[in-house]
Amino acid sequence: MKYRKLGNTGHIVSEVAPGTMQFGGKINMGNLGQEDTTRLVKLALDRGVNFIDTADVYRLLMLAGDDR
Fold it and tell me: What is the pTM (predicted TM-score) of this model?
């Protein structure tokens, strides 16, 4: 796994950062169940990922009824 500095924060994060939009939400984008979500996160961590995108925009899209 390759890592980079995150701006001027001093944090070093993995270049790969899985997004969580499909993690159990109501947005119709092939949502993953708990078992698949757990497997994906464990695999990512085992491979050195230390940055997971949990952007609040995902919740906002659900509240707005966006069904992308």
Answer: 0.66
